[in-house]
Amino acid sequence: MPRRATADSPLLFDLPVGPDFSMESAARRAGQWPVAGADEAGRGPLAGPVVAAAVILDPERIPDGLHDSKQLTAARREALFSQILATAMVSVASSGARRIDRTDIRNASLDAMRRAVFGLPARPLLVLTDGLDVPPGLRCEGRAVVKGDARVLTIAAASIVAKVVRDRMMACADNTYPGYGFGTHAGYGTERHREAIGSLGPCALHRLSFRPFRPETLD
């Protein structure tokens, strides 16, 4: 009798529909509390800082609707941002363009994440981070969670905070460096942004180590 093939991926209806608090709850039962979630926003843009946030949620006051910030509208992110600040412990740190250029975007992101964790008013016993990396130098256990902003509520909260803070920073930058459209594209490499760089040249917020600014890519 031939063997029945087995699926190499879970059934669609077995997949979680959004982030939950299961990792945090398991850690709490094991005595690892508080648990912080950490995430960043702005690794890909050509300009502006990378912003990291660390959040410790109150299990009794978790805002409804937390999700990966990229899955939410700007209005929904702003509303949840206010709720997170009102109910959770929050810390934010950033690495600017010059730090990114001196090291690289990965190290600058991890350093911002580390500083965000250190800025929390309570010291976590576990830090859950989005992606593949754990910031070096944490004073507690760190655990990287692939697609964590869509799986873990605390990381989702951090992703929202980081995104809202960075978007606000880039909106302010639009006033300081007019003509680039930072308030619209937040520094990402849109056609409008690239055209502005072509006519105005880079400003102090641009990441000169990124490909469009390297000598071999310039005409």
TrEMBL record:
Its EC number is 3.1.26.4. It catalyses: Endonucleolytic cleavage to 5'-phosphomonoester. PROSITE patterns: RNASE_H_2. It comes from the Bacteria. Pfam families: RNase_HII. Its main location: cytoplasm. Its cofactor is Mg(2+); Mn(2+). Keywords: Cytoplasm, Endonuclease, Hydrolase, Manganese, Metal-binding, Nuclease. The keyword Transmembrane helix does not apply. Residues 33-219 form the RNase H type-2 domain. It is an enzyme of class 3 (hydrolase). A divalent metal cation binds at residues 39-40, 130. SUPFAM superfamilies: Ribonuclease H-like (SSF53098). One of its GO terms (molecular function) is RNA-DNA hybrid ribonuclease activity. The keyword Membrane does not apply. Coiled coil: none annotated. Gene3D superfamilies: Ribonuclease H-like superfamily/Ribonuclease H (3.30.420.10). It is found in: Cytoplasm. Manganese or magnesium. Binds 1 divalent metal ion per monomer in the absence of substrate. May bind a second metal ion after substrate binding. Belongs to the RNase HII family. Endonuclease that specifically degrades the RNA of RNA-DNA hybrids. This is Ribonuclease HII. It comes from Mycoplana rhizolycopersici. The gene is rnhB.
